[in-house]
Amino acid sequence: MAKKEYFSMNNVPKGTKMIVKVTGEEVTLVEIINFPTTFKTKNNNGEEKNYYTYEVDIVDWPPEN
């Protein structure tokens, strides 16, 4: 039986695109803040905002094998 590979939300690379679930806005990851895990993001207008992990859909994460 193959081992399942797990990906931590703390390993999402900077620059990753995300979609805010409530608004549908596309943002880019700037920094990961721990305890609780929060994503500091920047939108197309340069505005920065923090989101919890459950508030966004991460584009192309986790990576496909």
Task: Describe, in plain words, how this protein is organized in 3D.
The chain is an all-beta fold. Helix content is 0%, strand content 38%. The chain is built from no helices and five strands. The protein has a five-stranded antiparallel sheet, with no helix packed on it. A hairpin with a 4-residue loop joins strand 2 and strand 3. The radius of gyration is 13 Å and the shape is globular. The two termini are 16 Å apart. The mean pLDDT is 90.
Short key terms for the protein model shown above:
65 residues; mainly beta; 5-stranded antiparallel beta sheet; 5 strands
Secondary structure elements and pairings:
Blueprint: E1 17-20, E2 26-33, E3 38-42, E4 48-52, E5 56-58
Antiparallel strand pairs: 1-2, 1-5, 2-3, 3-4
Short description:
The protein has 65 residues and is mostly beta strands. The protein contains no helices and 5 strands.
Strand ordering within the main sheet: 4-3-2-1-5
Q: Give the total of beta strands.
A: 5
Q: Which regions contain 5 or more consecutive residues with pLDDT less than 50?
A: none
Mean pLDDT: 90
